[in-house]
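Recap from last week: sequence in, structure out.
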Amino acid sequence: MSHSSKLLRYVDIGINLSDPVFRGEYHGRQVHDSDMDDIIQRARDVGCEKFMVTGSDLEESRRVMELSRNYSGFCYGTVGVHPCQAKAFDEYPGGPSRMLEELKALALESKQCGHAVAFGEIGLDYDRLFLSAKEPQLKYFEAQLDLAVDIQLPLFLHSRAASEDFEQLIAPRLAKLPKRGLVHSFTGTLEEMQRMVDLGLDIGVNGCSLKTEENLEVAKAIPLDRIQIETDGPWCEIRPSHASSKHLAGAPPLPKAVKKEKWQKGLMVKGRNEPVSIVQVAHVIASVKEISVEEVCEAAWRNSIKMFGLGEEAS
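Predicted structure tokens:
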């Protein structure tokens, strides 16, 4: 697929913009100046017109809402507690019910201001039970699903090695959520993808969703009216070792990247994925589907606006 000179429109529906690395801080150490504004400008330069910033716990969700206020009309966000943080409910001062109340208050207030557009990142992750055991994951996924239904926010979902329990919890609640939601950073099987689509969910695709030949077969099969695209930066970059990298021929080049210690203004940081690389995700999807990048972008844009709004009218 050759790259068109027409500027495309992108929504990055999964970007962890509150991560300290986007402010030049790595493992608690300030390595270089914050380059947040440059990161956002690079994304805008390639046509990325909207960010949906991910909240993974209560504190981070608050920071995400602050980003949404600071970059109003461009950044929107999610409110929720990631399954790997599920144990935080039981450790919260005042207990789980207090934390759920605070989550609900933040989500309601932020939805009314137009900043919170989804409830998430919530779900199940049985690959990382060392971070939070199965029981609190199940318990607080269910509790947060009920909050989302109460507040009427579409879902921003996480499912890893847990499809049976995930589907069992989610299926009865989706009828009460007209806009349903999206399973982000999808890496499941073809059969799992088809079951998610049958439930009425969209599928979020990033570099991690395109690592293997099997992943590419799944991406190829996702219906165009159910696909959304994301970077999941600072993670999930497309690497030369990934099956997807051979589909990048003709993709627009990314800005030069250097080691974080050598960073200078205008450069990317090696190993720190950022929203400008959404062009690569769209390019790979177009290549495996054998359609134009324009078709991928327009479909993904339509799907994201229809589900999350993001300050636009759905066409």
